[in-house]
């Protein structure tokens, strides 16, 4: 009888006992019936087990030995930090794992005295074929790939055993990992710099060949960005013209030079002043008026009396506290060096004579030659005044 049959028999016996107990209590069976019921509940399962054992019969030992499979001999060995090559020279993976194997019946071959070494060699050969094709930058990804590839039992080339690996760990040496990290940072920085350089080149090309090609293109570009500031754009035409000329290394066109702003304090040249600004009328100076007066009296620039009259008039102005005007008259009409007055005339340096007697007054000295002649002719020949 199997274990399931035994369990079922015990369960049914217990259930029948409970039912009979409930029935006896409800029907008020006599006291002598209860021991009989207990004997039946114990005897019935025992009889059932005995009958089942007789029907199965004993098994021969030979049959049991034929049905038993031979035990599988399993072995394991832990290896640590074995260097495996990568796709880059001098960058090796460090392989750690637990190698498991079991021997195979290989008739006609020599016995294997070190199956552990053969199993490790088989596992490392399988792992090396994978790692030597992978770059060392992602050891964790290669580790999971090896975990899948080495998880199945595979025979060695000689067929002596089957081997596998588990608990695989794949890392790089610490200094190799630092070098790879620095190389990755340099590549990233270089990529960023390349993008920035291309962006600047594109921007310069756009500005030089499109925006600042000429003043018209610059004005259109500026209006596209500030379409609500038309008046300001018109006012900045000179700046845009200068910017365009500087970008193209050329001079500002002649037609746009008048629009260019001038630096603070810079004055336009004489040509521009004559062309753009009307002449400013200046108020005539006193020396100009006096010179015009002398010209109206017939005293030209070659007349020797002009300096003398100017000197005498300047002395009169000094008496009226008009020193500035007097100095201006002397600066413009001062008698030249070596000027000598004629006989009978006072020197130009003083209003009186050299001997200290007062000379002629300025009004008398300013008389014209004709008035002097008429006065001389009106005097009597004998030198006596009129009326005597």
From TrEMBL:
Region (Disordered): 258-281, 331-388
Presence of the UniProt keyword Transmembrane helix in the record: yes
Comp. bias (Low complexity): 335-354, 361-380
The entry's keywords: Membrane, Transmembrane, Transmembrane helix
Transmembrane intervals: 7-26, 32-52
Name of the protein this chain belongs to: Uncharacterized protein
């Amino acid at each position: 009888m199997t274990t399931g049959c035994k369990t079922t028999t015990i369960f049914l016996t217990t259930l029948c006992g409970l039912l009979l107990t409930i029935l006896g209590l409800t029907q008020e069976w006599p006291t002598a019936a209860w021991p009989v019921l207990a004997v039946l509940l114990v005897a019935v399962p025992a009889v059932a087990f005995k009958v089942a054992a007789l029907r199965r019969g004993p098994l021969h030992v030979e049959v049991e030995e034929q049905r038993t499979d031979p035990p599988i001999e399993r072995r394991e060995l832990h290896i640590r930090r074995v260097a495996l090559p990568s796709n880059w020279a001098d960058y090796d993976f460090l392989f750690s794992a637990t190698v498991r194997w079991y021997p195979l019946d290989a008739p006609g071959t020599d016995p294997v005295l070190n199956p552990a070494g053969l199993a490790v060699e088989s596992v490392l050969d399988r792992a090396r074929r994978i790692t030597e094709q992978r770059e060392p930058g992602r050891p964790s990804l290669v580790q999971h790939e090896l975990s899948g590839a080495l998880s199945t039992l595979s025979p060695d080339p000689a067929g002596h055993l089957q081997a596998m690996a588990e608990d695989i760990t794949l890392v790089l040496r610490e200094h190799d990992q630092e070098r790879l990290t620095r190389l990755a940072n340099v590549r990233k920085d270089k990529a960023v710099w390349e993008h920035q350089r291309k962006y600047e080149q594109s921007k310069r090309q756009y500005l030089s060949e499109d925006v600042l090609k000429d003043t018209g293109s610059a004005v259109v570009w500026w209006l596209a960005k500030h379409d609500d500031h038309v008046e300001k754009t018109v006012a900045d035409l000179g700046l845009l013209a200068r910017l365009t000329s500087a970008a193209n290394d050329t001079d500002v066109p002649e037609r746009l030079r008048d629009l260019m702003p001038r630096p603070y304090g810079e004055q336009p040249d004489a040509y521009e002043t004559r062309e753009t600004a009307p002449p400013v009328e200046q108020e005539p100076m006193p020396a100009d008026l006096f010179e015009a007066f002398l010209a109206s009296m017939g005293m030209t620039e070659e007349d020797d009396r002009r300096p003398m009259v100017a000197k005498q008039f300047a002395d009169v102005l000094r008496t009226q506290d008009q020193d500035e005007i007097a100095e201006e008259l002397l600066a413009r009409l001062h008698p030249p060096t070596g000027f000598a007055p004629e006989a009978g005339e006072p020197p130009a340096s003083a209003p009186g004579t050299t001997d200290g007697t007062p000379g002629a007054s300025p009004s008398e000295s300013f008389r014209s030659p004709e008035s002097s002649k008429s006065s001389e002719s009106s005097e009597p020949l004998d030198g006596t005044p009129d009326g005597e």
